[in-house]
Amino acid sequence: MLNTVAYEKKPQGSASDTSYKRSWKESNFYGIMKRFTKNKVSVVGLIIIILLVLTAIFADYIAPYNYRKVDPVHKNMLPSAEHWFGTDAQGRDIFSRIVYGARYSLAIGVIASLVGTLLGVLFGALAGFFGGWVETVILRICDIIQSIPNILLCICVSQVFGSGFFATAMALSVYSIPGTTRLLRATMMSVRDQEFVEAAKAIDCSPLRIMFKHILPNCMAPLIVSFSMAIGMKIMSSAGLSFLGLGIQEPIPEWGAMISAGRRFLRVAPHLVIFPGLFVALVMLSFNLVGDGLRDALDPKLRK
User: Fold this and answer.
1) Does residue 28 belong to any structural domain of this protein?
2) Could you list the residue range(s) of the whole structural domain that residue 170 is in?
3) CA–CA distance, 283 with 230 (Å, rounded to integer)
4) Is 35 a domain residue?
5) How far apart are alpha carbons 271 and 267 in whole angstroms?
6) CA-based R_g, the chain, Å
7) Which of 55, 199, 210, 237 has the fewest beta carbons closer than 10 A?
8) CA 243 to chain centroid
9) Helix, strand or coil for residue 255?
């Protein structure tokens, strides 16, 4: 006769089931957000960015007029109840064009920063992990790129790719690659000799697995801050290229293009330049404030 062994069912919710589960309040993300919200100025910057993003998404419902609608009879009108920000030289409503222009300005800033960051992460990871001649070649290329003034490099790349949305984004992403590369290389050099990396090598992990799964996640904090602050700089640079006639051109309502178109009427209708210029300054200030808040929130010295 076979002896039956009774296995006692483990009660749910026991200490052994929850010993490896961290609560929400113990997570790193909660701690980062808690420290970030203590910086009221950075929270205000984040709120402004969220409002601008919502404005870009729902521009069709917010803008009172079609941004392409031309009305020569009411050109260069000052701000009024009918046209909050006035009209431009062709009678188009400036407020509607700024609302629609948020789509292009914010999108080009995010895309240019994302492309530059991804390429910088790739080259910085290779230089920081392998070292040797790989590091030397990558850093010398970065030196060559950084020796060229940013605006001159953007102009040259813009001339190669031409004008337009994606061409401008590519031109703006080039000069941010060396900075991200050097930042990640320096961070990886301080991480690659730690014990958990040696343990991964001891169990015969591949170099790519060690690089992207073990080292890179521990280097994300400075990259997040760099990415957030680069968006504002890209929007400013995009406005500068459009002002020079090399970026996004009319009739697309990009803020820099609006400033370029209104400079000819600066004496008679200064509002053509003032309002889009204020939005360029506002979005750049907001991203810089958020970047400062993230830098403080991700600082390991403030985690205690």
Assistant:
1) no
2) 45-302
3) 12
4) no
5) 10
6) 26
7) 199
8) 22
9) helix
Give one DSSP letter per residue of 200-217, joined into a string.
HHHTT--HHHIIIIIIGG
Would you call 185 helix, strand, or coil by DSSP? Answer: helix
149-179: pLDDT as tens digits: 877 887 787 777 776 777 788 888 888 888 8
Please name the amino acid found at residue 18.
T
pLDDT for position 2: 43
In a domain, residue 290? The reply is yes
Q: Count Cα neighbours of 115 within 13 Å in the Cβ-side half-sphere.
A: 16
Characterize 272-302 residue by residue with b for buried, 16 or more Cβ atoms within 10 angstroms of its Cβ, and e for exposed.
Answer: bbbbbbebbeebbebbbbbbbbbbbbbeeee
Other C-beta atoms lying within 10 Å of the C-beta of residue 215 = 22
Question: Is the distance from CB of 192 to CB of 248 less than 8 angstroms?
Answer: no
The whole-number pLDDT of residue 54 equals 92
What residues contact 267, with CB distance under 8 A and at least 6 apart?
A: none
In a domain, 139, yes or no: yes
258 in Cβ contact with 276 (< 8 Å)? yes
Residue 48: is its pLDDT beyond 80? yes
Angle (CA) 64-70-76 rounded to 5° is 85
